[in-house]
User: Fold Oxidoreductase from Jejuia pallidilutea.
Amino acid sequence: MLKAGVLGAGHLGKIHLRLLKQSEKYELVGFYDADTKTAQKVADEFGYKLFDSIDELIDAVDVVDIVTPTLSHHECAINAITKGKHIFIEKPITNTVAEAEDIRALVALHKVKGQVGHVERFNPAFIAVREDIKTPMFIETHRLAEFNPRGTDVPVVLDLMIHDIDIILSIVKSEVKHISASGVAVISDTPDIANARIEFKNGCVANLTASRISLKKMRKARFFQKDAYISVDFLEKKCEVVKMKDAPENPGDFDMILQNAEGIKKQIYFDNPKIPDVNSILMELETFADAINNDTTPVVTLHDGTEALRVANMIINQF
Assistant:
């Protein structure tokens, strides 16, 4: 079992602590949080070992799970990597692309592994349809949240939209050609609602909307490709796959047949992929353990996290 320690005991940090504790692939050694009052409360309530410093925690583990505010990701990661420790780092990977590139270079130098916490890659609904999404040419995403003061220190693009940016970049195997975007600050000092249009060199277009001032939550993505429409509801963990194929010569009474202006007939049918029963955060942490133990490439690489941040910054620079 890999010895793991968590940096940061906030909302998400506590979830990571709980899941690492129950995982069969990790031994949870303990945690550190700069907020001594919060840290002691978590230690008293759950019984996790509280370390007095970041360095003491890093020295005691094989894997450092970084769940601190984004501004401190770079410093925490550098401390861990230079001591030969593997790092799991929450999204966004760092505050700047330069910091992310620095981490990537150090990981290669010290021959350790890193994974970024883009958890929607492990969403059961997305896993169920991932193989069906092949060459989408139009993608539409909506990620809406009710207002929560937590996270408003960064633009909504880095808070919410970056999830969908990573999903799209993992699917569209083409370079970004052009980005146009707009964002508006309503409650915070940074944009609370944003829309971006990403055009890729292969012709695919993605239209992304993110808001943290909505009256209801929504996390949906729709993918349109040749002969197929695929929708993913990340919040409800549901998906829908609608496909088309050449119509049979003698269709049945209940077959859905479409005929275009040229007289070509297509049959519409619904595919209902099985949605796995998995905990997304536990799965991302355990696949990282597998990558370390088997010396394989992590599912969400530091390169993936860097590119998602790069595109996110390109969108923010449009505002």
In short: The chain has a mean pLDDT of 95. The chain has two domains: 2-112, 121-276+311-316. The longest strand covers residues 176-184.
